Structure formats: C-alpha cells, structure tokens
Amino acid sequence: MPQNPTQLHRALCLALSDRLEQAGCASYTPSDWENLVALAQSKGLAPLLFWTLKHANSGIYTAIPDDTRRQLRSIYATDLSKQVHRAQELHSILAALNEAGLPATVLKGAYLAEHVYDNIALRSMTDIDLLVHPQDMGRCDSCLCKLGYHPTRRAWIERDYASAHHHLPPYYKDGASPVEIHWSIAHPAHPATVDLRALWQRARPASIAGVPGFALSDEDLLVHLCLHTCYSNRFEGGIRNIVDIFMVVQKAHARLDWEQVIHTAGAWGIHRGVFLTLLIAQDLLSACVPAQAIESLRPHDFDPQILSLAEEMLFDNFRISINFSRLWQQSSLRQRASLVWRRIFLSPNVLSSKYPIQPDSPSLPRFYLRRLKELILRYSRLTWRVAWSSGQEKAAIERQNRLLQWLEQTNGLAEDRPLLSRE
Questions:
Q1: Across all residues in the chain, what is the average pLDDT?
Q2: What domains does the chain contain, in order, with CATH numbers?
Q3: pTM score, two decimals?
C-alpha cells in the first residue's frame, strides 16, 4: 500500500501499465483507492486508469469500492463528452485548412488520443496543436479567424516572431479549446536542431477527426515526445508525458525503427535527453524499449543518480522557474546581476513575443519597465518563499539545477545560449 507520494506515483504507474498484482491493488483500502484516483485525476490520467482497471483480466474492478467506481465512471463520461466536442472543433479546423490547400500535421494530444490510445476519452488535452509550413502561417491565421478564432495578440511572424518562438500566440474562441499553430516543434532556446524538411518528408497521411491530415512518423513522434518531456517541460509535466511515451512504444513496438530513433535523437542534438526519458519510461512503466537502443543512447558518463533526480522532479508538486532556479544557485554577485540583466532586457524580438508590441516600436522602454516591475514582484515572492521554506523548495532547486547542468553539458551547450522563454 502506498505510504508516501513517491510510492503513490509508482503504484499509479504499475496500475496504468496493467501490473495490478505488483501494485498490490487487491489489498487496497478505500482510502488507498481514493488517494490513487485523486492522483490520477490531478495528472489527467483518471480515464485511462478507469479503462485499465475495468478491462483487467484480474477482475480487480469489481473489488474497487462502489463510490470509487462511480467516481471513475463519472470522470470517464465527462472527459469523453469534452473530447468529442474537441474532436468536432478539430474536424472544422482541419476541413478549413484542407479546403484552403494547407497541409497540417496534428501534434501531441489530438493525434495520440485517436491513433495511439485508440479512444479519445483516454487522453485528455487542453488545446489543439498543429504543425504547418512556415510559409503558410499567414493563410492559417486567415482560416482560423474565419472560423471565429482570434489570437491573444498579433505576432509579426514575417519579420521577427520566428526568432523568438516556435508557434504563434494561442488562438481563442468562446466555448472552444485554444489552438496553437506551430512552424517548428522546438523552441529556439532548446538544444534541438530539427530538420523541418526531413520531418515533413517522413510525415505520413492520417485521418484525424474524420478529416485527411498528416501525422509525424512513429520515430519522429517518439523523439518529439521525449523532447517535449525533457526540454520543454523539464520533467515538470508529470507522469502523463511518460505515459504518452509508453503508449507510443507499446502501440508501435512491432514497426518502430529504433535505428531511426537513435539517428534522429543524435541529428537533433538531444540524444542524452531521449536516453533519459526512455529510461524513465522503462523504469516506471516497463516500456518495451530494446536494451540495444538504450545502450546505444547511453552516455559514457551517465550517473544513475540522474535517473533518480528526474523521477523526483516528475513526482514533485513544487514548481519553480528554471531562470529563478539558476539565479538562486549563483554564488557570484556578478553572475546574478548578469542573469537578472538578461531576463529584464530581452531582445526586442523576444519581448514582442511576450507583450503586445512590435519589435521596432518607440514604446519599447515602457515595456521594459513593465517587465522589470513584473519580475521584481514575481522573484521577490519566490525568494521569500524559498528563504523561509522547510528545505523542500531548496532541495527542488538543487535537483533541478543538477539535472539542467547534466543536460546542458552532455548536449554541449555554450554558456551564453539563450535562456528558455518560460519564466
């Protein structure tokens, strides 16, 4: 029976990968079930837990307390209704893009739900992510606006925005999910160097939400999910990202070209992050990653402690910005001042990706002042919280910095590489 958050997370992973006996579910008390379902719900995994338990050969579902079964059924039904609505939204968007002759690749949740989980209720999503060719961004904007979607702010993509981001600001519509239009799958500040032409060449036709579209190849999908987990979220997305990777490996296991996975991870410059993420999926969910693939990706200087650090970050509810974490760990006043300066005085291109202002606007000084005030407020609160914490927050900062340093060192990042845009 789970006694602490780490054990509870591991128990959830065992249950989701249909290792219910190993999880000891048969001996769970009503309180244990409540805790397990609460964790699954907080991670967006309750529908998948319901489905796994209900279809388990062990018959464990009938042993679950009635109240817990009703709760799981209710969560599943609610999520199914939401996902059906999102599928209808996606249908309309893809149909409009098709009519305009604009090819689109469906990324992450929307594709995973239909083609990997095989049941749109099992993989919740909060937005719709689409990849289009960079030269099609303006026409995609027109299509979305005709459907009633509008961006939070206008981006000057033709001139500046692409150097500061990898997707347009989210498009919103009353009663609909946000839509993000990507021209790349990697943020400019990430270490990944993605060959977009090769990515599109390997993309394959796929019917999604009843409309012809495109999907990443199995190998690119897997590496992209590792990129998203390790470099975009820095393992702060929780175990759902790892479950996505597990599901892809299980679904495409017979046809996955692991040599291509290894080659792509190296070509993109993220083989160490891909190694670590796949190792976590193997450790927590028994993902069927071939031993040869793991060994081919394994860094010669890999320390098993790195695996523990990454899993602790997955399980930890404490979230803190990477840039504050770096700032806290700096011992030199000069280094701290340099970091603060860089966070305030972003390039005009990056600033315009965060605020409603053009890069060449004469009002730039006003927005730099606004940013200074915002960072003072945000960082002073964090400083106070960490300084007077019991030690958990300081341990989380140290853990994050150690993992970050490992990833940067093994990917050969320069000291002056642009900082991540996430605060």
A1: 87
A2: 5-64 (no CATH), 83-216 (3.30.460.40), 224-317 (no CATH), 325-410 (no CATH)
A3: 0.86
